[in-house]
Automatic annotation (TrEMBL):
Protein name as catalogued: Uncharacterized protein
């Protein structure tokens, strides 16, 4: 209780753009990041049909990769195990 108000239990909380689950697993963060990156990648594919590989690489590194790499230092080890098991 804080100031006579009950605290509610939450299974997942978003703080500074990172999802943290109550069991300290990162599944929600990984799913969110890959979903957002895939949406951006889909927009690139729709917008640029005939481009050179250098342009695609530049678009990928500037628009898609930041979504995958955001705060990776906090969940990268766990994320590596998650991606390996899902393949």
């Amino acid at each position: 209780m804080i100031e006579s108000q009950s605290l509610t239990k939450s299974d997942c909380e978003k703080d500074l753009g990172i999802y943290i689950q109550s069991d300290l697993k990162w599944d929600t963060q990984i799913k969110y990041a890959t979903s957002k990156a895939n949406r951006v990648l889909g927009c690139i594919r729709k917008s640029f049909k005939y481009t050179q590989s250098e342009v695609i690489k530049l678009l990928y590194t500037s628009l898609v990769r930041p979504h995958l790499e955001y705060a990776i230092s906090s969940w990268s080890e766990i994320g590596t195990r998650f991606w390996d098991s899902s393949l």
